[in-house]
Structure formats: structure tokens, C-alpha cells
Write a structure and sequence with these properties.
mainly alpha, 28 helices, elongated
Length: about 625
């Protein structure tokens, strides 16, 4: 139903109940709990519950479904009756939507027993619907095999009931099976069921903005997204948005907000951050309107999710202040809400805020936020907290190192290691990989390269166990760090091996685009070759480093440093004229940067001295009296 149609339906349903109550000697909708039981009033309660569900007023719908069931039971007694079965199904489904899974299961079990008694082995649409509900319940409980059996039973019954005639209930069964396959990480087969669902609905409803067609496009968008087919995901996402806007006539509705958020997620995964931000902000504006005008409770946590997505996108774009504002707004919303246990969400948001503050260089603020997050996790009694405590000790240690307190950093990292070993044992885990790397960096900062190498190798091995074939950013970082430490202890061959690992991973991850990590790997490999005396190889690597920085054109200082590295190796190779040219390029960059308020007097003095030496060397080598 469109937004206007939902409001009209709600008014009609209210009038219907009031009329039934008036006919049967009750006063009004407000007196529904004291009204005399009558089949018409009970039926009106169930009808009104369905309208309330369509209007996303699930908790109020529950009340009317329950009153309808109570009336049926008072009227018919403790017998099996289709009206009682139907009311139980609606109550079970509504409890499931509210995540009261045990209550939902009780109602579905009761429905199942009634259906067995009422229909036996006879094919019946109600039996098929109960099987679908049981399948969805078991999926939400994580019992995927049981869920698949019930959903396939539902599909089989409906195909026998309706034959080759397209029917929306068959489409719903395909959706149910698709969701189970999605949870089983079988996205390709899930896609086939969702496509079949859409095909059936298009045969029934045509190109209309029917809610089930909109939902089909949403499911297809989500599945293509998981398969990383972002172009197809966007196609279905935009179609879903277009239909929702037409359906609700431009008015604010949670379905429109969800479509906008889904498109934002696609653009974010596609790393089109500006577009992602635009759709997220449109979605947030819609949610704020919903909270202020219709008071829908679920909009609060959807708004929290959007603030987090906007914060993350700003953070990735380098807009750290914007990222911090949205993260703090999300935290305030969670703390103001009385729904559920927000401790995990508070912990997550404090962690996000700390990460942003750390990137801003506000290490004292970051330390305070991380410590608050750790306190929330420690006070929690649920399973997620143990994992988060490990992560937070690791993060707190890293902030201490950035603040120059390496001893305190090492203490937290070792504590994180102890908790991780107790929690994960010998199983590879990304937290263990991170902790080992951080301990290695602590020991490196404490000038204990032997222990630094030991822990960095542990981190490398942990990363290889987690990703034996693929490249990851963290694997590239650890191998680059190992190469740098091994170079300092003059284990040049080992250093070169790890540096080359880092370069290979970084190139794979950059997909041919210029990248600072690729540049840093080339620079490290050049330094190792230079230490080994392989100046020709060093020159190749330093030139590759320069090429990356020139394509990035974001940091002229790094371009200047690259020219200095090249000049040094050219000089060692006796290519004095080339070295002079490289020093001139570096000198030019530093001189251009100085008027902008940068202070590079030392670099300029060093380069001018180097230029004089190179020119003198060049004059000596070209002198006719040179023996």
C-alpha cells in the first residue's frame, strides 16, 4: 500500500472496529479490552492488526492480534478452529518481527498442531503458510537445515496447489529459500530464487509499485552486493528507490529511507564516497523526519546506523571533524534510547570515536574514549565483550606508543596477547595477528630488534594462516615492517624477501592504481639493494618509488625525497650529471614549498652543499690534467 493508502486503510479499519463495537453494545476503540466477544469484533481486531503491521506499528498490532485471539477462544472454547489458527499465525509472525523467537515458536507450533487436526494430509494454503513461517523462524534461530526443509515443503505444497499459474505465495516461498541460502553463504543459488520470485510477481502485478516487487528488487540488490556485482546491485537498488518514491508519493517512509541507505552502501563498497555520502544524508534526513512526525521507534537505531555510515565515509575521505560529529551524534542517540541493551553499541561507537581522535592526533582524547569503551565491555556479561576487550587493549597500547609511552604500550599489548591466547588458543585469528605485530613494533621502538623480528614473524605466519593465497592490506604492512627491521640488523636477503612480499601484495590490492603503500615498498627495496651494494637495482626501485609519488601528486615532499634517493645512487654509480639533475629537481621542490609557510632550510642547505660537491666532482672528472 502507498502511504496515503495505509493511512486510509488505518482509518477504515478503525471505523470498522468502532462500528462492530457499537453494534455489539460496546463504546469505542478505546474500550476494546472490555468489549463483549463477537466474531465480527474479533475479525475487526485481526484486520486492524494487519493494517498496523503495514504501518510498521508492530507493537500496537500485537495488542489487537492478541485481543482477536482472546475473543475467538472465548467464543469457540478450547477447540481447533481456522480463526484461532489464523490469529495464532499472525501473533507468531509479529513476535518474530519483534525478535521474540521463543514466543513466536510457541504460536507456530500451536498452528501446526491445529492444521494437522483440521486438514490432515489435505493440501491447504494455511498449512503451506505455517510451514513458511516455521522456515523463517528457524532461519532466524540459525537452524538452517530445519529452515530449508520447512521452506521447501511450503514451496512444494504451493506449486501443487496453484500448478503452473503464477501466484505470489510461490514467490514468497522462493524468497524464503533464497534467504536461507544467503545465510548459508550460497549467494549464487540465492540469486536464482530471488530472480524467480521477481519474475512471478512481474507476471502477477506487471510494472507496478507493488510492495512485494519493491522487496524483490531490494533482495536482488542485496545479493548482487554480496557477490560484489556492484553495477547490478545499483541497478536493482535504484529501481527499488524509484518504486518506493512513486508508492509513497515523495513522503517520508522507512522503505524509502532503506532504499537510500542501500544505495549508499553500494557506493561506499564501490569506494565512490561522495555519492555514498549523498545517499546516506538523504536517508538520514528521511529518518529524522520519521522520528519527529510519526514517532517510529525503529527509526532511532536506523538513524544510528546511518550516522555511523556517514562517519565512516567522512573518515575514509579524510574529513575527520565531520566523521567525529556524526559518531558523537550516534552515541548520543543510543544513550538517549531506552530500547534494549545498548552497551555493545555504546562500546562500538566509543571505539569509532577513539579511532577518529587518534587519526586527528588527539591521542589523550582517543585514550579516554578507548578506556571508556573498555569499561563498557568489561561491565558486560555477554560473549561479544571478551573479543572486544582483546581488541581494546591492543588499541590502547597503540595509542600509548603514539604518545611516546612505549613501556605502557607494551604492557597493554602483552595483556591483549594473554587474553587472545586464552580466548582463541592455537586457532589463527586477526586479533592475534594485530597484537603480534604491535608487540613487534614496541620492541623495535625499544631497540630490541631480535624480539621485534620474532613477533613480526609470528604476525606474518598468523596472516598467512588466515589468508594463505590472497593479499591483504595487513599482510602487506607486516611484511614491509619485517623488511625494514631485518634491514636494520643487516639480514639483507631476508629483508629483501619480505619487502618483495609486501610489494606483490600492495600491487595486487591497488589494482594498477598509484598507491602510497606500493611507493613505500619500492623505497624499502631500493634501500636494501643500496645496503647490499646493488646500486643498479636500487636505482630501478627508487625510480619506481618516484613514479608512484608523481602519479599520486599528493605529497611533494615525498617526490623530493625520491629525487634525493635517486641522486645518491646515481652519484655512487658515477652518473654525476644525472645526480646533479636529480638534486636540482629536489631543490626546486623544497624552494617552492618554502613560501607556503613550510620550513625546509636544512634540506635546502644540505642539497645546495650536495650540489656543490657534485659539480666539483664533475669538474674534476672532466679536467684535461686528470690522470
Amino acid at each position: 500500500m502507498k502511504l496515503g493508502e495505509i493511512e486510509a486503510a488505518r482509518c477504515c479499519a478503525e471505523e470498522y472496529i468502532n462500528l462492530c463495537l457499537a453494534l455489539h453494545n460496546s463504546t469505542s476503540l478505546a474500550s476494546i479490552d472490555e468489549s463483549v466477544p463477537h466474531p465480527d469484533v474479533a475479525d475487526a481486531c485481526i484486520t486492524y492488526g494487519r493494517v498496523l503491521c503495514a504501518d510498521e506499528d508492530t507493537r500496537l498490532a500485537l495488542r489487537y492480534y492478541q485481543r482477536g485471539l482472546d475473543m475467538y477462544q472465548e467464543l469457540y472454547g478450547n477447540v481447533n478452529h481456522v480463526d484461532i489458527s489464523y490469529a495464532c499465525t499472525k501473533l507468531g509472525y509479529t513476535h518474530m518481527m519483534l525478535k521474540n523467537l521463543e514466543r513466536a515458536g510457541d504460536y507456530f507450533e500451536r498452528c501446526q498442531k491445529m492444521c494437522d487436526s483440521l486438514f490432515g494430509d489435505t493440501l491447504n494454503a494455511e498449512v503451506a503458510y505455517v510451514q513458511q513461517c516455521i522456515g523463517e523462524l528457524e532461519r532466524r534461530k540459525g537452524n538452517l537445515e530445519v529452515a530449508m526443509e520447512a521452506s521447501e515443503n511450503s514451496l512444494r505444497m504451493r506449486e501443487q496447489l496453484y500448478g503452473d499459474h503464477p501466484h505470489t505465495e510461490i514467490a514468497f516461498s522462493h524468497d524464503s529459500i533464497g534467504r536461507i541460502l544467503t545465510d548459508s553463504q550460497n549467494q549464487s543459488d540465492a540469486l536464482a530464487h530471488f530472480e524467480e520470485g521477481l519474475k512471478i510477481r512481474m507476471q502477477v502485478f506487471g510494472e507496478s509499485a507493488h510492495p512485494s516487487i519493491v522487496a524483490s528488487h531490494g533482495l536482488l540488490s542485496s545479493t548482487h552486493f554480496k557477490l560484489r556485482s556492484y553495477d547490478r546491485a545499483l541497478e536493482h537498488g535504484l529501481r527499488s528507490l524509484e518504486l518506493n518514491r512513486h508508492r509513497f508519493r515523495g513522503n517520508s517512509h522507512s522503505n524509502t529511507a532503506r532504499s537510500l541507505q542501500q544505495i549508499g552502501d553500494i557506493y561506499k563498497a564501490w569506494r565512490k564516497d561522495k555519492l555514498a555520502l549523498d545517499y546516506y544524508e538523504q536517508s538520514l534526513e528521511t529518518q529524522i523526519d520519521l522520528m519527529s512526525t510519526r514517532q517510529i521507534p525503529s527509526s532511532v537505531f536506523t538513524s544510528v546506523s546511518l550516522h555511523c555510515s556517514i562517519s565512516f565515509t567522512h573518515k575514509r575521505m579524510g574529513h575527520l571533524q565531520g566523521a567525529l560529529v556524526h559518531a558523537e551524534e550516534a552515541l548520543q542517540l543510543v544513550r538517549q534510547s531506552s530500547r534494549g541493551e545498548p552497551r555493545k553499541k555504546v562500546t562500538d561507537l566509543l571505539t569509532l570515536i577513539a579511532q577518529i581522535q587518534s587519526e586527528q592526533g588527539s591521542y589523550a582524547d582517543a585514550l579516554e574514549s578507548y578506556t571508556d569503551a573498555l569499561g563498557e565491555a568489561v561491565r558486560s556479561k555477554t560473549g561479544w565483550a571478551k573479543h572486544r576487550i582483546v581488541f581494546l587493549h591492543d588499541a590502547i597500547g597503540t595509542v600509548h606508543r603514539k604518545m611516546g609511552d612505549v613501556g605502557e604500550a607494551l604492557r597493554h599489548h602483552l595483556e591483549a596477547q594473554e587474553e587472545a591466547n586464552e580466548l582463541y588458543g592455537d586457532k589463527p585469528h586477526r586479533f592475534k595477528a594485530s597484537i603480534y605485530c604491535n608487540i613487534g613494533e614496541d620492541y623495535d621502538a625499544l631497540e630490541n630488534p631480535e624480539l621485534a623480528v620474532d613477533y613480526l614473524v609470528k604476525s606474518w605466519n598468523e596472516n598467512v594462516s588466515l589468508n594463505p593465497d590472497g593479499s591483504t592490506t595487513y599482510k602487506a604492512y607486516v611484511s614491509r615492517k619485517l623488511g625494514a627491521v631485518l634491514k636494520r640488523v643487516q639480514r639483507f636477503d631476508d629483508a629483501l624477501e619480505y619487502a618483495n612480499h609486501a610489494l606483490t601484495s600492495s600491487v595486487e590490492l591497488s589494482i594498477g592504481e598509484p598507491n602510497t603503500h606500493v611507493a613505500e615498498c619500492h623505497a624499502l627495496i631500493g634501500e636494501i639493494h643500496e645496503c647490499k651494494g646493488d646500486n643498479e637495482e636500487a636505482l630501478v626501485s627508487f625510480k619506481s618509488n618516484l613514479n608512484q609519488h608523481q602519479m599520486l601528486s599528493a605529497d611533494n615532499v615525498k617526490v623530493a625525497v625520491s629525487y634525493r634517493d635517486i641522486a645518491r645512487v646515481q652519484g655512487a654509480l658515477g652518473n654525476v650529471e644525472d645526480a646533479v639533475t636529480s638534486v636540482s629537481e629536489a631543490l626546486k621542490i623544497y624552494q617552492q614549498l618554502c613560501p607556503a609557510g613550510n620550513s625546509f632550510e636544512k634540506e635546502i642547505d644540505d642539497l645546495e652543499s650536495e650540489m656543490v660537491k657534485l659539480k666539483n666532482s664533475c669538474e674534476v672528472s672532466s679536467s684535461p690534467n686528470r690522470q
